[in-house]
């Protein structure tokens, strides 16, 4: 080790403060590897496992590596109190990381809970959502006998950068949400890179901006099916403001999507347990690969592929804007009946369903597709959803 590469240190003060604040499962960040690694996460995970296996801490601590990259690493540390065992675990981890080519400081960023007023606001005030499913491709796992659906790294990186810029489009405090409590976004790790690495490692992760005066929020969450959920709401915010913000997200990332939509919080088929026309929401979730050609229901604003459009009965009453990569923004000529109230005008939705025609996912369309699966059907062979 050269003089320019100090050993890994431990910030006792920051970790004590986090633990004694009542946060038994804390998020710890470390900076930084001395040399680029093809799999920094695996190096850190192995160091954490060795620290867990050490008898010094008497089982008082359990660490779990979340993800790592050239910018640094993040991992959870589950501990009830600061004692000699905790300190021993951290010392062992620091030694293992130092031997793996890391330098810098293990520390815990300050916990940052949403104020109670914000939680009440989140539960009581209407919100509008934007759902965007990133384009997936099949990757064969060969010897395991099935394929998996993956999103290209470049797509994840672009979506993560945009997600952080989107939440920061309003003034307020910016939070990174790898768990509860949140972390205020600062200079410890670039938020977009943390999100991108987390998505690659199949982590549930998100970020948000909260403004208390007046109450307003922009939130993103990367979840199952490589889907990004955007949320926009404000106590003084009329529906056109929220819907416009979500539309901007679809326009910016739509070319990377298999499907996307904008809707009121109470008007998504998953919140409704399905749709009125009979599609179980689980049927939608279980057929992720079909999202690029079928939709759960029409909405006032959505992103569709050419495969979607080919199934439509008629779209002459819709505005269609190309987004590139055979993706299109499809909007109702008048979106007020879709978004001015919590539920769209029933007659407007009924007409939209007629317009979309065979684009709507049904039990028949699922069973007819070689990649489809419906309750009661034999398990699919050679393909994992």
Provide structural commentary.
- By secondary structure, the chain is an alpha+beta fold.
- The protein folds into two domains: 9-109, Alpha-Beta Plaits, CATH 3.30.70; 116-368, no CATH class.
- 31% of the residues lie in helices and 28% in strands.
- It has twelve helices and 18 strands.
- It has helices at residues 12-20, 40-53, 84-99, 116-124, 153-167, 191-200, 239-253, 281-285, 306-311, 336-339, 346-356, 363-368; strands at residues 9-10, 25-33, 62-69, 72-78, 102-107, 111-112, 128-134, 137-140, 147-150, 173-177, 182-184, 205-212, 215-223, 227-234, 257-264, 301-305, 318-324, 327-332.
- A hairpin with a 3-residue loop joins β13 (215-223) and β14 (227-234).
- The relative contact order is 0.11.
Question: What brief labels describe this structure?
Answer:
385 residues; alpha+beta; Alpha-Beta Plaits; 2 domains; 12 helices; globular
Which class best fits the helix and strand makeup?
alpha+beta
Q: What order do the SSEs take from the amino end to the carboxyl end, as H and E?
A: EHEHEEHEEHEEEHEEHEEEHEHEHEEHHH
Percent in strands = 25-35%
Distance from N terminus to C terminus (CA atoms, Å) equals 47 Å
What overall form do the CA principal axes indicate?
A: globular
- Please give the count of helices: 12
The largest beta-sheet arranges its strands as 6-11-10-12-13-14-7-15-16-18-17
> Which stretches are poorly predicted, pLDDT < 50 over at least 5 residues?
381-385
Mean pLDDT: 80
* Rg from alpha-carbon coordinates: 23 Å
Tell me about the largest β-sheet.
Answer: 11 strands, antiparallel
The structural domain count equals: 2
Proportion of residues in helical segments: 25-40%
């Amino acid at each position: 080790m050269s003089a320019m590469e100090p050993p890994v240190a431990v910030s006792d003060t920051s970790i004590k403060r986090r633990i004694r604040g009542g946060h038994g499962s804390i998020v710890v960040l470390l900076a930084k590897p001395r040399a680029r690694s093809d799999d920094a996460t695996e190096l850190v995970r192995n160091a954490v496992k060795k620290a867990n296996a050490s008898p010094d801490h008497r089982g008082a601590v359990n660490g779990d590596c979340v993800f790592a990259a050239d910018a640094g690493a993040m991992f959870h540390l589950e501990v009830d109190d600061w004692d000699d065992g905790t300190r021993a675990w951290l010392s062992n981890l620091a030694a293992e990381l130092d031997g793996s080519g890391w330098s810098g400081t293990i520390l815990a960023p300050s916990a940052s809970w949403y104020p109670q007023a914000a939680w009440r606001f989140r539960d009581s005030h209407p919100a509008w959502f934007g759902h965007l499913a990133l384009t997936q491709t099949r990757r064969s796992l060969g010897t395991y006998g099935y394929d998996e659906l993956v999103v290209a790294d470049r797509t994840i990186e672009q979506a993560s950068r945009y997600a952080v810029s989107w939440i920061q489009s309003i003034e307020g405090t910016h939070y990174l949400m790898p768990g509860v409590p949140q972390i205020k976004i600062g200079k410890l790790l670039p938020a977009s890179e943390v999100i991108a690495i987390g998505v690659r490692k199949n982590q549930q992760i998100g970020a948000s901006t909260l403004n208390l005066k007046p109450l307003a929020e922009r939130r993103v969450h990367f979840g199952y099916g490589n889907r990004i959920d955007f949320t926009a709401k404000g106590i003084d915010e009329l529906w056109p403001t929220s819907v416009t913000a979500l539309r901007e997200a679809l326009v910016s990332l739509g070319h990377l999507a298999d499907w996307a939509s904008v809707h009121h919080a109470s008007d998504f088929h998953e919140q409704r347990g399905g749709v009125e026309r009979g599609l179980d929401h689980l049927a939608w979730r279980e057929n992720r690969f079909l999202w690029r050609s079928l939709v759960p229901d029409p909405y006032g604003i959505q992103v569709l592929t050419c495969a979607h459009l080919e199934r439509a009965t008629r779209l002459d009453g819709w505005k269609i804007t190309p987004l590139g990569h055979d993706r299109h923004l499809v909007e109702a000529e008048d979106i007020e009946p879709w978004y001015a109230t919590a539920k769209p005008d029933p007659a407007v939705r009924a007409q939209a369903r007629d317009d979309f025609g065979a684009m709507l996912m049904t039990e028949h369309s699922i069973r007819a597709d070689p990649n489809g699966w419906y309750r009661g059907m034999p398990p699919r062979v050679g393909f994992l959803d």
